[in-house]
Amino acid sequence: MKKLIALLLAAIMVLGLVACGPTGQTESQPPKGTEGSKQSEPPKQTDKSTEPPASEPITVTVWTYQAESEEPTAEANRFQKLVDDWNATHEDIKIELSNAKNADAVVTAIAGSNVPDIFQANWETAPSLAAEGAIVELTSYVNSDAEFDKDDFLPAIWNLCSVDGKIYSIPFTASTTYILYNPKVLAEHNWDHFPTTMDEMLQCALDCTVLGEDGSIQVVGLHPTFPWLDNVLWPVAFGADWVDADGNPDFDNEGIRKTHEFQKTLLDALGGYDQAKNWADTFYTTRCTETDPVLTGQAAMRFNGDSGLAGFQESADKLGLVYGEDYGIAALPNANMLTGGVFCMNAKTPNPDATWQVLAYLTGKDAMAYRAEGGYNRGNFMPRISALKALEAMDVTDAVKAGAQLLQTSDLRSFPMSGYVNTYLNAITTYMTEYLAGRMDLDSAVAAVQEEVEAAAAEYK
Amino acid sequence: MKQIPAKQTQKTKPAKSNALRLGSRRQRLRYNALGILFASPWIIGFLCFTIVPVGMAIYYSFTNYNLFSKCDWIGLQNYIDIFHDKYVAKSLSNTLYATLIGVPLGQIMALLLALLLNQKKIPGIPVFRTVFYLPTLVPTVASCMLFMWVLNGQYGLLNTFLGFFGLKGPYWLTDPNFTKLSLIIMDTWACGTGMVIYLAALRSVPETLYEAAELDGAGPVRQFFSITLPSISPTIQFQVIMSIISHFQYFTQAYVFSSITDTSAVAGGGPANSMLFYCLYLYRKAFLQFRMGYASAMAVLLAIIVVITTAVVMYFSEKAVSYDAE
Does the CB of B274 have a partner CB in chain A at under 8 Å? Predict the structure, then answer.
């Protein structure tokens, strides 16, 4: 009896351990060398890991971060519609879509399994995944698939998707920086035109900044900090670069210094970093609403990097403001930054060719033209030129049309991709904020970033 | 059909009586084995979800595991790197700061609230209890958003309140000297769980002790220090230890707060890395830089620190803890 119970306990424990093992072990395709042993298993076994017969369709799983919504035009539902259309017309490959995922869920999943085959990633995450061998290099797929038409994409977007000249992700959204401005506030300070150079922009911002007698902010000329964007935006605007010609980290250069001196001058004019940051924390929560500081005249200029242009103009319409007279949209004088969301292919995907077909479909011309209509049909910026042109022809606001044009006509640049991009961005935020806040001098801050990034680059190599 | 329960009863009755008698060695073994069998779901869960992951974390701490590819054994290299990593030192000092300030403050606030809510003569006490417990139920993200407004240096509620007394509050969210205090204030606001535990402990102190003390002429303060505190000292010890452990594992609030106040970086650590807590840095290493081996070593080190700290606290608090009231 004792032995029986002991055996029973042992069996339960082993079963428990097996059941709790990584899902990738059961769901992934067996390595070629082990196929023979798998085939010897009883045919009635319905384990997912067995190679599907030719007659069975291949399932390609796709994960996005898009929030679930009842609104039929929401991004998640547009993706679902695309997937439904595909599944209705394809017998050999089926798509299984899951929305509302996040970066941690994706990393955890692909660490242990071949699910998902395709997943959304932030632009700065993809290079790190590429460096660790977690995603498939897509260069040959992109270059050899004529129907995919690589040249239809904004040329600069491929820099965002490439590491060392190799493509690792496919863009599915695009975003640049739009300066929203209030011409009346500019005119009050004798600026009858939007600045055409960075020197003019600085002067215009300083002229429009108004502090109260107690030093509190009354009107912001231009607030230089903005979530996620300021690290990239201003160096692009000043033509500065983060790496040298060989791709090595080069933060300690004149352009970068000028960029941050520009920001510090603006912040000091606003009463210092702390006061300016508190203003931003408060007023940026109202951006693109009827109390947007540009619409209310509390800011002369500000930049907006997301797809809030439609909401901005709708709020302006509610206030009875006129585009071009009461508010405007402009590009930065020299160059503009480019960011976007990307799709990656899991390195463990058992069917890379089928997965590429799905990826090419989801980022194809028709799919992007459809998604360009955006949530509530307000417009959505795509990295494909054909989709941007389609957006311009749609019944969307003037601001959105202007945004689409800016994407096609601006000189666009993005942060250089590398396996240590996260470390680089974190270092810039940490030390340059210290400079902007007056807690470090410029030389020390720049040197600290350079030192930290050089170490990260060495480790990466 | 009705006979089945009767049969089951007949079968189980002798087993129960055998178990109770525990006569022979064989019967004792059988009884123990049955106990293990019934406990096996938990044992399996413990093995799968605690022992195995802990064992794997220890193993990975000696490797260069990156989540995605095969790992190599690198011996103590991760531990050596940790001791040379300036951010580990920074995150540890932040964590210690939050622990040293946050634990006493949180416990004192919870105890004070519990003492207030332990009054029997005040009407509507259950309502007050609910109100004071409510912050505990607010999701961390929502709390952070709320305190972003409360602690705004220029327009915030707290600084406006301080302004009534002629005081100029600091920039709570942007000044690295005050960001950790901001988190501590937010945590203290949500001390409802500790308050409820202290309240339960206070309720278990025998009334007779207070009556006897009153007869001897002891006032409320004397009663508090001579009766209440010693009587609830085991609870205080438990609460302090649990609070220390949770402060060493401080993550969610710091992650959300630093993400909101410092949105140009993921798990950035806030101004001058003043909110870079140990677990936040561990997360950054594991899930942003994919250095899972290094992160595992950090986790093992944290476990050792927590065990040592707990042992030290228990050793030094043991003399002050009284179990007489029990």
Answer: no
Q: How confident is the model at residue B121 (pLDDT cuts 50, 70, 90)?
A: confident
B67/chain A closest Cα distance in angstroms:
5
On whether both B109 and B230 belong to a single domain, the answer is yes
The strand pairing partners of A221, in sequence order, are: none
**Which range, of A7-21, A175-189, A367-381, B263-277, averages the lowest pLDDT?**
A7-21
pLDDT in tens, B172-215: 888 899 999 999 999 999 899 999 999 999 999 999 999 999 99
3-state SS assignment for residue B247: helix
B312/B307 Cα distance (integer angstroms): 9
Name the minimum distance, in Å, from the CA of B210 to any CA of chain A: 52
CA distance A256 to chain B (A): 17
Q: What is the mean pLDDT of chain A?
A: 85
% residues pLDDT > 70 (chain A): 87
Chain B hits for A282, CB-CB cut-off 8 Å, are: 152, 154-155
Laid out side by side, the sheet with A170-171 consists of A93-98, A58-63, A118-122, A341-345, A170-171
Q: What are phi and psi of B283, to 5 degrees?
A: -60, -45
Residue of B nearest to A6 (CA): B33
Quick one: A407 and A448 in the same domain?
Answer: no
Q: How far is CA A189 from CA A11, A276, A287, B202, in A?
A: 82, 21, 23, 67
| Whole-number Å distance between alpha carbons of B186 and B146 | 9
Residue partners of B235: CB distance under 8 A and separation at least 6: B197, B198, B200, B201
Domain containing residue A353: 58-174+340-413
For residues A215 and A125, state if they share a domain: no
**Residues of chain B with C-beta less than 8 angstroms from the C-beta of A16:** 44-45, 47-48
Quote the tokens at residue B38. 């019934």
pTM (2 d.p.):
0.81
| B325 is a domain residue | no
Which of B 43-102 lie inside 8 A of A, CB atoms?
43-45, 47-49, 52, 66-69
Task: Tell me if A338 sits within 8 A of A175, measured CB to CB.
Answer: yes
Is A5 an 8 Å CB contact of chain B?
Answer: yes
- For residue A447, tell me if it sits in a domain: yes
Contact A134 B67 (CB under 8 A): yes
The CATH number assigned to the domain holding A193 equals 3.40.190.10
Tell me the longest C-alpha to C-alpha distance in chain B: 83
CA distance B162 to B86: 37
Q: Which of A9, A273, A434 sits opposite B36 (nearest CB)?
A: A9
* B9 in contact with A, Cβ within 8 Å: no
- Return the sign of the alpha-carbon dihedral for residues A126, A127, A128, A133: positive
- The yes-or-no verdict on residue A41 having pLDDT over 70 is no
Total count of domains within chain B? 2
**pLDDT value of position B54:** 94
Q: Closest approach of chain B CAs to the CA of A429, in angstroms?
A: 6
B87: in domain = yes
Do B101 and B202 reside in the same domain of the chain? yes
- Using left for φ > 0, alpha for ψ between -120 and 50, and beta otherwise, residue A376 falls in left
Residue A291 near chain B (CB below 8 Å): no
- Are A282 and B43 an interchain contact pair (Cβ–Cβ within 8 Å)? no
Strand partners, A97: A62
Given a cut of 90, is residue B2 above it in pLDDT?
A: no
How many other C-beta atoms lie within 10 A of the C-beta of residue B108?
A: 13
Domain that holds residue B177: 78-320
From the list B114, B111, B136, the residue with the least C-alpha distance to B125 is B114
Task: Examine the domain organization and report whether A237 and A328 are in the same domain.
Answer: yes
Report the alpha-carbon distance of residue A328 to residue A295 in Å, rounded. Answer: 10
> Do residues A23 and A49 lie in contact, with contact meaning Cβ atoms separated by under 8 Å?
no
